[in-house]
Amino acid sequence: MTALTVSERLALKGRAHQLKPTVMIGNAGLTDSVLQEIEKTLRLHELIKIRVMAERPEREAILSEICTKLEAEPVQHIGKILVIFKPNPETHKIEIRQMPRHKGKKPLTKKQLGNRG
To answer: Does residue 33 form part of some domain?
Structure first.
């Protein structure tokens, strides 16, 4: 899988904002059963949030391990929440669109996007 571009990552962050964490990794860490559950959920939804109850260095290691083993792409890591994306060619639910641009070919700001209503 190819790495996500900046604009693709921004679009996925926007879509992930409204999602609730679907998988929670507790004190036992990343076990095989948790990894299987993440894989099932990714196959079904393509874009998921994961809550990790661990310290920051452990969360970073867990994120890289998940992405390596499942061939997924990390989208965001904020606090105890990880956002991961893996496209499913069978369902293909999420279509990544480019950020809207105005006449000057610059991406619209958050304020401009919000005013579009």
So the answer is: yes
